[in-house]
Design goal:
34% strand, 7 helices, 4-stranded antiparallel sheet, 6-stranded antiparallel β-barrel
Length: 432
């Protein structure tokens, strides 16, 4: 901005040199101010709520052995991708093989004892009817059969457990995903349900958890209901130089309670991550798209000015006669501030030129005239290119003459109506 004022001062000095006379003090005409303008654009634009979030695995498993023993094999390389059912490690199975043989023997004994006692009951059925065996003795035979059945079932259970323990000696991947670091080596003694071998994270699909203020939950749920129970998300890197790394997702899971201490609530989205763009536990920036604003007016954030009472306004700069623009103050309402240094507003028409630099120069008067310039303060010609240095005097002289014409017209209109008030538009309402 200092460059604009310096060049403007130089241009003003150039415009008054011919008017300087040593004997007579002449009134110096004021050239228009130099401003940088941008055009308000109309477009369908998403209205969103920005949040911070964290990525989580869709499925995650910590690999812990279910039996104790010495590790005899490690069948994975750290960082590899594994499929469900792949063998990860092996525990020495010999003691568990012996346990299976022993349990199988116990089961066979129990089955044999049951068969003998069943035959005993069958032989004594006719004898008890004929009175050769008393009823009490026969009942003991029957009870012995039922006891044998229980012993056989217990032996069968020990046999099944022994086979299961033997099966657990071969440690397999419970899910598909990316395997982590190796936490044991061959020869280590692993303790059941305690020793960590490694971990597996599913990466091709992730959850993204993010928080919103609890007072926005009712509004968000309303938009979710309108959209069939879910909303779209834009998930981006937190780092500003990585914002182009973006993935779309959808959210339909809302936590079932408010977090009292922070006054927030967690929402969970699902993201397809086949490109491996994101990783579990990664912090991300989340834009929760609530709706699409039809015909939104978008202007640069730099155009916004703040009034004494906190109200927002912009300066519009309409071309009256090239290159002179009439500057007017227009109150606006901010709908949304976007991360690309733009904002969605109400109160400005599509295609209107707004001042984005040089506002201080046009704020000194309620009736200001200006011309378009570069950020460095060089005026633009009709061809859309900055005016050459050698043509500056001619440009400023012509612009000053046009400005003087408009000022004279304004003064004549002001004196003619006799009301003594300003007729130039000081706001969008006045302009209408």
């Amino acid at each position: 901005m200092k460059n604009i004022f310096r060049i403007f001062a130089l241009i003003a000095a150039m415009s008054v040199l011919p008017a300087c006379a040593p004997k007579k003090k002449a009134e110096v005409p004021m050239p228009p101010s130099a401003v940088v303008v941008a055009q308000a654009k109309k477009a369908d634009f998403p209205r969103y709520l920005e949040c911070l979030g964290t990525m989580h695995s869709f499925q995650s498993a910590v690999i812990v052995p279910q039996v104790s023993g010495q590790i005899t094999k490690i069948n994975f390389s750290q960082g590899d991708t594994v499929k469900e059912g792949d063998v990860i490690a092996q525990i020495d199975p010999r003691q568990y093989e012996a346990a299976v043989v022993q349990a199988q023997g116990d089961l066979m004994q129990a089955e044999a004892a049951l068969k003998i006692d069943q035959l005993e009951v069958k032989r004594n059925e006719k004898l008890v009817k004929d009175g050769y065996v008393d009823k009490q003795t026969f009942d003991s035979y029957v009870a012995k059969v039922e006891s044998d059945k229980g012993l056989m079932e217990a032996a069968k259970g020990r046999y099944m457990q022994a086979k299961l323990n033997l099966e657990w000696c071969t440690i397999k991947a419970p899910i598909s995903g990316k395997i982590g670091l190796k936490e044991v080596d061959v020869g280590n003694i692993a303790t059941a349900n305690s020793t960590r071998i490694t971990s597996i994270e599913q990466l091709d699909k992730l959850y993204v958890d993010f928080i919103i203020p609890s007072q926005r939950l009712f509004e968000v749920r309303g938009f979710m209901e309108k959209s069939g129970g879910k909303l779209d998300l834009e998930v981006k890197y937190v780092e500003s130089n990585m914002r182009d790394k973006m993935q779309r997702a959808s959210v339909k899971i809302v936590q079932n309670k408010i977090r009292y201490q922070s006054g927030t609530v967690i929402l969970r989205g699902e993201i397809d991550n086949k490109s491996m763009l994101f990783w579990p536990n990664q912090p991300v920036k989340v834009s929760l798209v609530l709706e699409t604003i039809k015909g939104a007016i978008i202007i640069p954030y730099a155009a916004l000015e703040t009034g004494p009472n906190g109200s927002k306004y912009v300066y519009t700069a309409e071309v009256k006669e090239w290159p002179v623009r009439e500057v007017a103050k227009a109150p606006v309402e901010i709908v949304q501030i976007n991360e690309d240094a733009s904002c969605v507003v109400k109160g400005v028409n599509d295609g209107a030129d707004v001042v984005v630099a040089g506002q201080l120069a046009v704020s000194a008067s309620s009736y200001a005239l200006a011309y378009s310039s570069t950020v460095m303060g060089m005026p633009y010609g009709k061809d859309g290119k900055p005016v050459a240095i050698e043509s500056l005097r001619e440009f400023i002289g012509g612009a000053t003459a046009i400005a003087e014409k408009f000022r004279a017209q304004r003064a004549a209109a002001k004196n003619g109506n006799g009301k003594g008030h300003e007729t130039a538009p000081a706001s969008a309402e006045a302009k209408k």
